Amino acid sequence: MIIESQSDHENAWGWLKALPEKLWGKVVDVAEKIKKLGEDDPRRIIHSLKVGLALTLVSLFYYIQPLYDGFGANSMWAVLTVILVCEFSVGATLGKGLNRMLATLSAGALGIGVHSLATLSGDTGQPIILGFFVFLIAATVTFARFIPAMKARYDYGLLIFILTFSLISVSSYRENDQVLVMAHQRLTTIMVGSFIAIVTCICIRPVWIGENLNNLVANNMEKLGKSLEGFGREYFSIPEEGPSMDDKSFLQGYKSVLTSKETEQAMANLARWEVWNFRFGFRHPWKQYLKIGTLSRQCAYKVDALNSYLNTKIQFQTPSEFQSKIQEPCTKICSESGQALKELALGLKKVMNQPTSVYLHIERSKMAAENLKSLLNTTSLCENDNLQVIIPTGAVALILVDIVPYIEKISEALHELASLAHFKRVEARVSP
Amino acid sequence: MIIESQSDHENAWGWLKALPEKLWGKVVDVAEKIKKLGEDDPRRIIHSLKVGLALTLVSLFYYIQPLYDGFGANSMWAVLTVILVCEFSVGATLGKGLNRMLATLSAGALGIGVHSLATLSGDTGQPIILGFFVFLIAATVTFARFIPAMKARYDYGLLIFILTFSLISVSSYRENDQVLVMAHQRLTTIMVGSFIAIVTCICIRPVWIGENLNNLVANNMEKLGKSLEGFGREYFSIPEEGPSMDDKSFLQGYKSVLTSKETEQAMANLARWEVWNFRFGFRHPWKQYLKIGTLSRQCAYKVDALNSYLNTKIQFQTPSEFQSKIQEPCTKICSESGQALKELALGLKKVMNQPTSVYLHIERSKMAAENLKSLLNTTSLCENDNLQVIIPTGAVALILVDIVPYIEKISEALHELASLAHFKRVEARVSP
Predict the structure, then answer these.
(1) Which domain holds residue A119?
(2) Do A395 and A286 fall within a single domain?
(3) CA A137 to CA B49: how far, in whole Å?
């Protein structure tokens, strides 16, 4: 027991001695993570500085006497508004700013109306009428926040509506004569605050969420294309052209596409606030991006199914007759479809029409798919073929045949997007 | 031309006449949607009434003289807090309330510190020092909101930190002597507001987000189980036991599992605030749910791959030799794995250990999978087998063999959850 407690003691001492080092390690670790966060997306640092700047600007209302004379302690609402409205992207900032202004305006008007009604009913009646309306409006508007269409775009506005209405109607009980002044000052300060937030957000290195959505959808297609190409080379053991890639991470690229649905949805909701954008123009068809996203995701499920066959890969070093027959159209589908996806992604990133070479790639994959189908339909089996080879290879072939129509649908959806949004036309060189 | 414009005129008249009917149709349509929203989840109606009630309670601070004497116009902060903190679930309400209180406390203290520092530097220096600190703190804390670990749990707190700090330090410039009183009153009113919101949320029909997560994960497993069972019956054309189900929607049930990742993640983040729940006890292992969710999703991708073979289903009315050989183990895997998933889901819903019958089902599916594997390895082909039948059926068999380990992993993860969370032990009758 003595020995044990001695060793316990030593352990504790050792632990204590190692503590500063451990703590320092933690600090360095956290600092590195923070540094990486900034390096990954320097727009985050710029956004932080923008918030600081907007806040410093709005606090001038306190420091400069003539400005302070105008609003007095109500300048508080301007400060509050800047902090709450300043968001990372233009879409989010515009959405919050407009929501906040509209909600304050309408709730203020309603609050004044209810206040007038309540004053009519004397000293005892007033709090009862006020209380009744606050309950009614709060409950109704809270329920309205559950309506999906409202939640998507006006959730913040509905919250501010309840807030402003309650504050104005409840405090009107104590400041009977001041209600109009109060409501007016509140509205003005909130408009000033929103204005400062929106101007800072748009004028200094703006982050357009619509462009982020455009790039996200394009990157997802690119990842799919790379995974598909990579699968073809891996499964059929084709030596790489160009420098060999030991890093097989491109094979896993499609995985982030599987779960991107909610991110895309949220971004599209915010992008709709960016009614005008110098790259996309006025009223861009954001819904079309969701359609393309859904098709990409369905395609990603197929690629996932393909990838599960990589684990049970059959060596193609000495291919059976069946394998050597289907190998050519299979690799053709992988490379042509992958190429088509990558070119579609590039076109979308540059906000231009699909180059005609995409149609060629799709035509070629369709031909390869037809070829593969007829091979599967006409090939008869020999006795020496065995099931362990035929089934997985054949299943891969079936999935590849299945993928081609999705690539075509994605291309059609992109074409629709390009015509809806008047993308610029590009005559790409056709390389037959 | 005259005829045309006449018909135009008639059209316009007809459109005008139909307008009230159309509008009425729209109104009825919206009303029905709203009614359905309430019927789908009556907790939404209760939540709306709760918000109304909490707000009426907090506005008593204005109506009742002794209460108003205590806080005066600062009661506004209590009203504001109730509206902002009242959320649908206990987890969200607790998270926001605690965030708000802690952030107000710490930012208030820092604000007072900076104010004291600024007063030392005279009339000209004061706004410069205040402005500098507001910029610094706002920029730093805004950047901290990008750190994923902070964003997940303390995003709201960080926002309130900037807000309180700015309000107190900036307005201290105008109300030099009042800073301590102001900070103190702000803190007290916010605590009262948060307290009212939290009590209303917990005491009246509370919605525990942790229970929702528990049920979501359980329901997802159940949907997977049903889809898997349904697939087995559909693909191998097995007549239904019991009443026939014309509605094939159960086949599509797995689809919502594919995209549930972000919902689960968000729910787990909120559930961690519910440190105590009368059903789950103290510090429930919410992370484990995410692990189960991920496994379910991987299983759902497999089911999606299976379902794509339903479209190209081969009639099993006159099965080939190969088909009749593998049909039995395939349907066995579908029914036993599906049954296992359904029982696991039921156990999780009831918050108890897995019934031993689950292990039996899993054992049986594993045996069937082994059986199927050896069938695929040993069967030799006859000349009259054709590829169009062998490949898709064989591919289905391969995916089914692949699914079994996932079911086992899900069961293990659930077992781990049960032991971590001390689920109650249930001795289920074993039906061999």
Answers:
(1) 45-203
(2) yes
(3) 10
| The predicted structure's pLDDT at residue B193 | 94
Give the residues of chain B that fall short of pLDDT 50: 1-3, 243, 427-432
Q: Is A366 found in the same domain as A294?
A: yes
User: Looking at residue B287, which CATH number applies to its domain?
Assistant: 1.20.58.220
Is residue B8 included in any domain, yes or no? no
What pLDDT shows up at residue B324?
A: 82
pLDDT at res. A431 = 42
**Does some domain include residue B171?**
yes
Gap between the Cα atoms of B25 and A42, Å rounded? 51
Same domain, A192 and A231: no
Contact assignment for A84 to B163 by CB distance below 8 Å: yes
H helix or E strand, kind and range, residue A281: strand A281-282
Task: Please name every residue paired with A281 in a beta bridge, in sequence order, or none if there are none.
Answer: A277
* In-domain check, residue B295: yes
Name the pTM for this structure: 0.88
Estimate to the nearest angstrom the gap between the alpha carbon of A250 and the chain centroid.
21
Q: B193 and B221 in one domain? A: no
For residues A223 and A329, state if they share a domain.
yes
Are A229 and A357 in the same domain?
yes
Give me the interface pTM, i.e. the ipTM: 0.88
CB contact under 8 A, B142 and A52: yes
Residues 399-418 of B with CB under 8 A from A: 399, 402
Do A170 and A233 belong to one domain? no
Per residue in B176-235, pLDDT (tens digit) is 778 888 888 889 999 999 999 999 999 999 999 999 999 999 999 999 999 999 999 888
Q: Spell out which residues of chain A touch residue B44, defining contact as CB-CB under 8 Å.
A: 143, 146
DSSP string, A189-201: HHHHHHHHHHHHH
List A residues 122-141 in contact with B (Cβ-Cβ < 8 A).
127, 130-131, 134-136, 138-140
Q: Which residues of A touch B147 (CB under 8 A)?
A: 33-34, 37
pLDDT at position A268, please? 93
Question: Is A390 in CB contact (< 8 Å) with chain B?
Answer: yes
Q: Using alpha carbons only, what angle is made at residue B53 by residues B48 and B57, rounded to the nearest 5 degrees?
A: 150
Q: Mind telling me how many Å the CA of B82 is from chain A's nearest CA?
A: 9
Total count of domains within chain B: 2
> Are B267 and B362 in a shared domain?
yes
Q: What's the CA gap between B16 and B22, in Å, rounded? A: 10
Instruction: Indicate whether A165 belongs to any domain.
Output: yes
Q: Is the pLDDT of residue A183 over 70?
A: yes
How many other C-beta atoms can be found within 10 angstroms of the C-beta atom of residue A115?
A: 23
